[in-house]
Amino acid sequence: MVRPTYFDVEYSINPWMNPKKPTFTELAVTQWEWLRDLFVDLGHRVELLDPRPGLPDMVFAANGATVVDGRVLVARFRNWQRAAEAQAYLDWFPAHGYPEVRQAQWVNEGEGDYLVAGERILAGTGFRTAPNAHQESQDYFGRPVVGLTLVDPRYYHLDTALAVLDADTVMFYPAAFSPESLELLDELYPDAIHATDADAAEFGLNAVSDGKHVVLPQSATGLIGRLRERGFEPIGVDMAELLKAGGSVKCCTLELRA
Ligand code: ARG
Q: Which residues form a coiled coil (predicted)?
């Protein structure tokens, strides 16, 4: 995770970002600290990467890389405003016991668009990660990569439209996907939880699950109920300040898969 020390909305690279709207960095830090402490309480070890000045979106650690079986594929950002974030990950991983680190050749925004679901990797494209990046990731990780096309600019990363709950269960927002991708999702996950427009707009799908506890924005009340019905333990958190930049729980969390 990356503390939002320099968090701000200074530019707009997704429909949620309005640089004219005031942001409160201290509030973002408080919300982020709550999330970090919650992960620790749930028994996770949280590693911190130092924020760098001039990179106001750096709190969204999920975008920095993808880590599978201890192998690290560092992002190549779509927008120049975030491009320099990649160097922080290229520096951090080799210094913290990850010898296999490479920067992606194709535009690839890390776990924003790559979600590990059991043996497979679900991969988003349409707005950020390039379609060619999917083949590169499949070759690098040696896992089947399933491409999914996003069509609604509000849900520009896969992790804003779909969350992996356990190896065989996902929840997603159907309207965010192309008809072909939706058909594929229905085939792969006939029991998926479908999010309403309202829950999707609260970034309810930007969630982190350990297979039991599902941490998600507290305002996604419909999904919280659905998750409970399905035997998960949803835990709502307030990430309203970070949502001003188009991010929430999952965006702030890069999972280090050994
Ligand atoms: N402002 C950031 C951007 O548009 C938000 C990134 C959110 N991260 C995510 N994993 N969806 O790039």
A: none
Q: What's the 229 CA to ligand 1 centre distance in angstroms?
A: 30
pLDDT in tens, 18-70: 999 999 999 999 999 999 999 999 999 999 999 999 999 999 999 999 999 99
**Residue 50: CB atoms within 10 Å:** 11
pTM of model > 0.80: yes
Structure tokens at 135: 């083949």
Q: 232 with 15: CB under 8 angstroms?
A: no
CA distance 67 to 116: 10
Please say if 252 is a catalytic residue: no
**pLDDT tens digits, 85-127:** 999 999 999 999 999 999 999 999 999 999 999 999 999 999 9
Q: In what order do the strands lie in the sheet with 71-74?
A: 65-68, 71-74, 101-103
Residues 6+ apart with CB under 8 A from 201: 154
Q: Is the ipTM of this complex over 0.85?
A: yes
Write the residue with the smallest CA distance to atom 7 of ligand 1: 247
What structural domains and CATH numbers belong to the chain? 25-243 (3.75.10.10)
* Rounded Cα–Cα distance for residues 89 and 61 (Å): 9
